[in-house]
Amino acid sequence: MDGEELTEEETALYDRQIRVWGVDAQKRLSKAHILVSGLNGTAVEFCKNMVLAGVGNLTLMDDRPVTEDVLQSNFLIPPDEAYYSGRSLDELCCESLKDFNPMVRVSIEKGDLSQFDGEFFDKFDAVVVSCCSLKIKKAINEKCRRRPRRVALYAIECRGSCGEIFIDLQNYTYIQKKSDGTAECQLKYPSLEEAISIPWRDLPRKVSKVYFAMRVIERFELSEGRKPGETSISDLPLILRLRKELCDAQSLSESHVPVSLLERMLAAGGKEHPPVCATLGGVLGQEVIKAISGKGDPLKNFFFFDTADGKGIIEDISNSSTS
Amino acid sequence: MASGSQLEAIKGAKVLMVGAGGIGCELLKTLALSGFQDIHIIDMDTIEVSNLNRQFLFRQCHVGQSKAKVARDAVLKFRPHINITPYHANVKDPEFNVEFFKQFNVVLNGLDNLDARRHVNRLCLAAEVPLVESGTTGFLGQVTVHVKGKTECYECQPKPTPKTYPVCTITSTPSKFVHCIVWAKDLLFAKLFGDKNQENDLNVRSNDGTNLTAPTEDVFERRTDEDPEQYARKIYDHVFGYNIEIALANEETWKNRNKPRPLYVRDVLPDNLIQQNGSLENCVTEESVVSSMLSLGLKNPQDIWSLSENSRIFLEALRLFIEKRQKDVGNLTFDKDDQLAVEFVTAAANIRASSFGISLHSLFEAKGIAGNIVHAVATTNAIIAGLIVIEAIKILQGDFENCRMTYCLEHPSRKMLLMPVQPFEANKSCYVCSETPLILEINTRTSKLRDFVEKIAKNKLGMNSPMIMHGSTLIFEAGDDLEEDVAANYALNIDKALAELPAPVTSGTVLTVEDLRQELSCNINIKHREEFDEEKEPDGLVLVGWIAPTQKDTRLVSNGESTSTAHPAVTEMVENSDEVGIAPAKPGTKRKLSEMSEITDNVHDITPRSSRDVNDQVNPQEVEDDNDDVDDDIVILDENPETRKKKRLQ
C-alpha cells in the first residue's frame, strides 16, 4: 500500500506490532473508523485494544449513566461519584481512552443508533454493538448491509461466565496464506437475522450449547420487553418453559440447552465476569484488526467462550444457500 | 461477575504477580476488576516507548519509571481500595526467598525470560505454592498450571535453548541473512567496540584451525593519530575485502558453494561519494541521538538500502562511534535500543550478505533479528490474562480437577481458537521436581571446575548461587560473604581440571549441586569422555537425564517453514529447536504428554512455534459424548495421529 509513510513516532510506538502484521496493515488501521455502540465491559476491553493498536478514529455511543454494574467491569472510570455523576458513559470512557494513545481520535456521538439514517454508517469500516435488544441489533445490521461500501458488523453478548460474538463481513475477499503460496479466498456471511433463523436441526452437529442458551434468553427478554441482562435466577421457570417450546418447535432435544448453563447465565444478570470480558474483547479486537488490514483468516461467523470448559469455539452458522 | 463462592475465594486471596509487562498490565487490571484485594507485583524493568502499544497502564510521561510502581498507581485509579504492593526488583534477588513465596496462595507469571521462569518454578515448588505460567508471541499464547504433586512442573519438559550456529557458518560460509547478523553483531561489533580481551573468531580460519590473518600488527587497533575516516575504510577493506580474498584461497570450501565477492571501498563507493561523506560532517549537530542515518539523510527504517548506501552507513557509523562515542568504545555490547549500534550492524550484515549473494534487509528487519525482538500485540496479552485469572480462581477454590492449560491459537484447531487441554502429569525423571540424577559426559582431564560451575550449574541447571559437593566434601560455593581462606581455596581450585581437584572428579563420581535459595539439589553422575564433536557439541559436554530413558526422542516437526508469522527472518531466529518428547501410553494410566510449544512475551531466549505446526503435530481429541447433555467434555492431546482413538475422560 502506497501513500504516506508512518511517522517516526508511529514506527517507534507500534514497533512490536508492526512485526506481527506489517507496515501496510498498520497504515490501513490508522485510516480506519470504528463505531462502538453500547459500552459494556467487553466493549471497553475492545476499545482499549483498538486504541492501543492505533486505529484512526473511534466513535463511542452510550448515554447511560454510571451504575454499580457498569463500574464493576469498567477500568476506564474512577469510582468517584463526584467525578462521574451527571455524565454519560460514553463521555467518561472517551475522556479516559484519549489518554491511552494521543495518535487516535476518540469521539462520541449522541442519539439512538437504530433511528439513524443509513448514510450515517458510511463513514465507518466496522460497527460494534452491545447492550441492546436483538431487534435493534438486527435493524443496525440491515442498515450496514445496505451501504454501498462494506460496513462490517460485530455484535457482542456477555452473560456471566459465557460470551458470544457475531460477525457479519457480508462478502469478504482476502488473500489466504498457505504453505504453498497464497490463494484468494471468498467468504459470504449471512446477516444476523438469516443466521439465527436457520432451523436448529440444520446446524452443524455438536454446535456450541452456548448458542442455544443465548437464543432462548434473548427470546425471553424480547417477549417480556426486558432490557438485555435484565434477568435473574427467578426467571428460570419461565425460561425453561420457553426452552421446551423452542426445542419442540425445532425438534431438538432439550438436553442441548442444559439447565446448568441457563442458570449460570441468568444468575449473572447484568453483571459481567471481567476475565470473560478480557478474553472476548481480545478476540474481537483481533478480528476487527484482521478485517481492516485484510491480513489473516477472519472468523466466520460466531465465536463462543465459556469459562466452565474454557473453550473458545468458532461456529459457522450459515445456510448452505448463503455460505 | 464471579459467583458467591468464587468471590469469597478471591477476596481472601493473596497473590504474587511476577512481571508487569505486556501480560502483567492486562493481568493486574483483570485481577483488580475481578475483585482481588491483595496483589504483590515484582518487576525490575523500567518503561520504554516500544512498550506503550500494549502495556496500557503506561503513558509517554512514564518512560524510564518502574513498571511495577506505575502499574500499581494506574490500577488504584479505578480500584482505590485494594492493596497492591510493588517491588521494583529482580525476582531472583535473595529477599524473594522461599519464606517470601510461602505467604501467597498462588503465583502468576507474566515473564519474558527462561531464567526467571525457572527460578520462580523452583521457589513455587519449594514453597508449595501453585503457579500459573503464561507466555505470548504475536497471536499465539498459552497458559499452564503447575501444582506440586498434581501436575508437571514448569521444567518437566526440556525447554528450548537459543539457537546457536556452527562457528564456521558464521565466520566463513554464511548462507542466510541471520548468519550475517550474528557475524556483524557478535564478531565485528564486539571486536571493534567491545571488550578487547574477549576471544573473537572474527578472522577467517583455515581448515587446520590456524588463524591465517593473524597480523603482526592488529588492524583493528586504531592508532591514536589515525584519521577516523581512514580507519573506517581500512576496517571495511579488511573485513569485506582482504578476509574474503583469504577465504577464497581455500578452494576446498567453495567446491559446492557460491564464491563470495570481495568488496573494497574504492569499488563500492566512487570517490565523490566518499568525499560527500566527509562533507556531511557539518550537518551533524549536537543531536541527542547520534545516528548515521540522520547524517546521511536516510529516513525510512523499512527501506532496504543499496550496497553503496550500506557502505556509507557503515563508514559513517564507525566514524561516529570514534568521534562522538569514544568513551563507550571498548566496553559496548550490542543493544537493540542503541540506534547507532543497530545502524552499524544492519550495514555490516548487509554488506556481508551482498558479498555472499544473500538478499539484503531493512534496518527494521535487521533490528528485529539482531535484538531477538519478539512481536507482541495487546489483544493476545488481554486474552491470556483473562485465562490466567480463570485458572487462578479455580486454584483458589481448590478446584484442581478442572484446571486446564490453554492454548491461544492463530488458526482454529477443531473449531477452537482457545483450546483447553488437561494438565500433564509430572515427569518422573524431572531433575527439578523429582530426585532423578543427571548424567554428565565431560572430559574430566581438560574441563575445569570453572566450566562446571558456569556451564552446568549456572547455565544448564539455572542456579544462581550453586554449591558443589563431592560426597561430603564441599568443593565449591558461590557467594560474596565467604571466609577469606575458603574463598582463596576456591580460587585456587576453580581453574583446575576436574580430575586434578584435591577430591578428583572422574568417571563414576557423583557430584551434588545445590542452590539453597531455590531449595533445589540434584545429583550428577560424571562420565569421562575424550572426544566431542566441535559443531554438534560445541560446549564440549553433554548433560542428559531430562527425559525418562523409556521415552522415545520423537521429533514430530523440525520446524522448517512457518507460514503464520508475518516476518520470516524473525521466525528463523525464534524458531524452536526443542524436541517433543513423548511418553508411551501405559494402559490404565493417564498419558503424560509433551508440551506443544513454549511461547513467551518479549522473550529473548525462548522460541515459539507457529500454531500451524501446533495444529499439524498434535491431535486434539475431543471426547465424544454419546449423551449430548454431558457438558464436561474436555480435550486431550493424543500423541499419535495414526492411533486416533476416542477416549472418555470424566
UniProtKB/TrEMBL annotation, chain A:
GO terms for molecular function: SUMO activating enzyme activity. Gene3D superfamilies: NAD(P)-binding Rossmann-like Domain. Residues 14-308 form the THIF-type NAD/FAD binding fold domain. GO terms for cellular component: cytoplasm; SUMO activating enzyme complex. It is found in: Nucleus. InterPro entries: ThiF/MoeB/HesA, ThiF_NAD_FAD-bd, Ubiquitin-activating_enz, UBQ/SUMO-activ_enz_E1-like. The keyword Nucleus applies. Its main location: nucleus. Keywords: Acetylation, Nucleus, Ubl conjugation pathway. One of its GO terms (biological process) is protein sumoylation. Pathway: Protein modification; protein sumoylation. Heterodimer of SAE1A or SAE1B and SAE2. The complex binds SUMO proteins via SAE2. Belongs to the ubiquitin-activating E1 family. This is Ubiquitin-like 1-activating enzyme E1A. The lineage of its organism: Eukaryota, Viridiplantae, Streptophyta, Embryophyta, Tracheophyta. The gene is LOC103721214.
Automatic annotation (TrEMBL), chain B:
One of its GO terms (cellular component) is cytoplasm. This is SUMO-activating enzyme subunit. It is found in: Nucleus. One of its GO terms (molecular function) is transferase activity. The active site is at 168 (glycyl thioester intermediate). Heterodimer. Residues 601-650 are annotated as: Disordered. It comes from Phoenix dactylifera. Zn(2+) binds at residues 153, 156, 430, 433.
